[in-house]
Specification:
The structure is a homodimer of 349-residue chains.
Chain A (H helix, E strand, L loop, with lengths): L5 E7 L3 E10 L2 E10 L9 H11 L5 E8 L10 H15 L4 E6 L4 E4 L14 H12 L3 E6 L4 E7 L2 E2 L6 H7 L2 E2 L14 E4 L2 E4 L8 H7 L20 H9 L11 H28 L9 E5 L3 H10 L3 E4 L12 H14 L2
Parallel strand pairs in A: 1-4, 4-5, 7-13, 13-14
Antiparallel strand pairs in A: 1-2, 2-3, 5-6, 7-8, 8-9, 8-10, 11-12
Helix pairs in contact in A: 1-2, 3-9, 5-6, 5-7, 6-7, 7-8
């Protein structure tokens, strides 16, 4: 083996860039991961620099290849997905000019060289779920992969070792229940509920950007402060007390007028709506499978894997955290890790 | 003690009449229960005869007192609740002329002699939940009683041994989340969902009376055929196969076009909506209590006690079946049993 054998997996989302580095030696493969918040829609010109910094953390200069997945092309700072895909590919090339980079074609599941992406840029939009699914199907040929991220949830059926999802574009996937636009950190609670319980009434919510699901999950003990990795809605801290004050504004109240118990009641109702939404979408996905192919196992992945595990219980299905212990936080970068692993199968003999 | 010491508890609902008989001897009290389906709204003139038959099963002729609760006054065969209450009281008097009968005043929690009901008939409408709540509060001073019946669910906070519910009329209770108009047998699934998953799509439902929640719960294994005590929507049997054929019609399909797995998927989505509805209503009720009075325990009662226990888990609360083992089916007649017990406290020294 040469000195430069590492593979860098990249997953460029609209709010976070995530990376995983895979190396192989005589004892097998080892993985390291890193991620950084980056609001691509605010200023795409920062992307190349952020990728360079992320690459430095993983010593990307000693890698030979990169495997790229993305969702950031949907950002409205790009006029079209086509423009977004091409921009992202350009930024990756700028940050890692020395790496042989491939991008996953979501329509075929195959890897394409970076310089060929411009031929069919839409084949590479929102392809990160396919990397996760292809990787998971190798070890779990029959399962329902539910990857709950910071803003979205992917629900991907695996059957007979194949990816059995119907949708390929985000729109098709939303339509089929394979993509649910809600996650555990940056999603706005006001997209999940029209009313919440407040002192015995059902109170309508404000359609402002006052709080995030991270506030809900922090208050319910589903995530720790260290997991609150997105920027807060008000720029203040990530303590339960700060979360309480933000979430109180969901009903145009504040930290003086609503107690912690009041706000926790609201938070539970919001979480209940999230769980119901994921459960119903999963039922839609399951209903689309031939009976003989309906899996019995949910693979719960992502920073919101706890949502997936709870949905599995509601579905009457077994569940397992994937790829491993949710406390290790490696799941947060599942698509990047999966991309590196998948590419390694092609380039490592 | 005289020969005639038994107390007959009665709960006259719109679709079922339920009775409990309480006796006391040197060893304590013993209870027997009985119930019968009776669609009061179809023909109220059958009520007195049905009560007589029910009384015969419990040997009511050897009772001295009766304790009456009701909900059947809401039937639209009565022009008003006033008319309904008076009619029901008349039928009870006709069936049990020899019993000293009292009726529970839902506004005060006190027992009033049958011949005084006409003074304020609305004080006695929909009073059965109050009997259950007063009875439960004696042994569980701080709890949330969730009584899931065939068509409705009562969610009643008990605090400091008092009934802490805010609503007194059905309308007030619906408004506060203390009454949810959905149960586990005769409720129509089309009131819970606008769409269900069908082969990968979300399909709109038919607003017909094709199936009941009993079909849903039978197919999911939540109830046994013996628990399917209401008439079926199509007059056919209570087997899983017959339930499947009824529920398929919810999306205008039939037993030929949808498989058991297809229909079970739909059933799960309907049950999920029921659980979410009960959970959210319970959160509304809890949100109305002073913080220091929010209970940690759910008392799960009624033929749908399993729904209440599952909702408790979603609320992060402990739960206990009330008054006892759900398999004994005594819970089905909780208000009648509670009424007899409560009256016994007043008339047995």
């Amino acid at each position: 083996m040469s000195d430069r054998m590492g593979i860098l997996g990249l997953d460029i989302g609209g709010a976070n860039v995530k990376a995983a580095r895979l190396d192989r030696d005589a004892d097998g493969t080892t993985a390291k991961t890193a991620s950084a918040p980056l609001e691509v829609w605010r200023d795409p010109s920062l992307l190349a620099g952020e990728l360079t910094a992320l690459g430095r953390r993983l010593d990307a200069g000693t890698c030979s290849h990169a495997a790229l997945t993305m969702t950031a092309e949907l950002c409205d700072s790009f006029a079209t997905k086509r423009e977004g895909v091409n921009f992202i590919c350009g930024a990756v090339h700028e940050a890692f000019p020395g790496l042989a980079t491939s991008v996953l074609d979501v329509t075929t599941g195959e890897w394409v060289r970076l310089d060929r992406v411009a031929d069919h840029p839409l084949h590479f939009a929102a392809n990160n779920w396919m990397a996760s699914a292809l990787y998971a199907a190798r070890t779990h040929p029959d399962a329902l992969l539910i990857d709950v991220g910071s803003t979205t949830t992917d629900i991907i059926p695996l059957a007979g070792g194949q990816v059995a999802a119907v949708g390929r574009t985000d729109t098709e996937r939303l339509d089929r229940g394979e993509l649910v636009y809600c996650g555990v950190l940056r999603s706005n609670p006001n997209t999940l509920v029209r009313t919440v319980p407040v002192r015995g009434s059902l109170c309508r919510v404000a359609d402002e950007r006052f709080s995030f699901m991270a506030d809900v999950h922090l208050l319910l003990g589903n995530i720790a402060e260290a997991d609150y990795t997105c920027a807060t809605a008000d720029g203040r801290g990530t303590t339960p007390e700060a979360a309480r004050m933000r979430l109180a504004r969901l009903v145009c109240a504040d930290g003086e007028t609503l107690s912690m118990a009041d706000v926790v009641c609201m938070a539970r109702a919001v979480y209940e709506a999230q769980l119901s939404g994921v459960t119903r979408a999963a039922l839609q996905v399951l209903s689309g499978l031939d009976e003989a192919r309906r899996p019995g196992l949910v693979l719960a992945a992502g920073s919101g894997a706890f949502v997936a595990a709870e949905a599995a219980a509601r579905l009457g299905m077994a569940s397992a955290y994937y790829p491993g212990d949710p406390k290790r936080r490696q799941e947060v970068v599942l698509p990047a890790l999966a991309a590196a692993h998948l590419l390694s199968l092609e380039i490592w003999p």
